[in-house]
Amino acid sequence: MESLRGVVERITYANEDTGYSVIKVKSKGFMDLVTVVGSMASVNVGSVLYMKGFWTHNAKYGRQFEVREWEETLPASIYGIEKYLSSGLIKGIGPVYAKKIVNLFKEQTLEVIEETPDRILEVPGIGKKRVEMIKKAWQDQKEIKNIMIFLQSYGVSTSFGSRIYKYYGNESIDIVRENPYQLADDIYALVLNRRWVSQ
After folding, report:
1. Domains of the chain, with CATH numbers?
2. What is the 3-state secondary structure (H, E, C) of 147-185?
3. Backbone phi, then psi, for 72, in 5-degree steps?
4. What digits encode the pLDDT tens for the residues 143-160?
5. Spatial separation of the C-alpha atoms in residues 102 and 187, rounded to whole Å
6. What global pTM score does this model have?
């Protein structure tokens, strides 16, 4: 397998049920955006991805990178951090506030949000209410990532992992640890029910 690392610039297509996505990635060494396809649930614009897979050629869309494994890493550059925060991923931070926060904290921005989020009050125009919103959104995002990483460590595919998370929410890890066989009943019943409804 080959590897590719890049920042998600655009999500062209995303299937919520299966997790299958078509995304455009900015990657070092490539002049144009790279088209990446595969099962990548919960990927957002601004995310920095480390991916393993294969280069393929689609007759209609050209050269693509087909993902088999991926993990999200936090952006290291100021550009990447600002793009990540501008994506709307963290409720309470849009493009305007992302720029202000990054201008103040530079490369330490994500560290500040993670470890000392109350320091965001130092940013002009940001009040306590917005800081609380940012704290909660940051925790929620972290929880989703932790659940997906936990499920992948058990060999659960990303698309199946996204179904598990949608069904169980933040209790996913506890339920899978306590009784993994419950997945067979609950998720299978959910899939059957969807097929039945769509007929």
Report:
1. 2-73 (2.40.50.140), 78-141 (1.10.150), 154-198 (no CATH)
2. HHHHHHHCCCCHHHHHHHHHHHHHHHHHHHHHCCHHHHH
3. -95, 135
4. 777 777 677 666 666 666
5. 41
6. 0.61
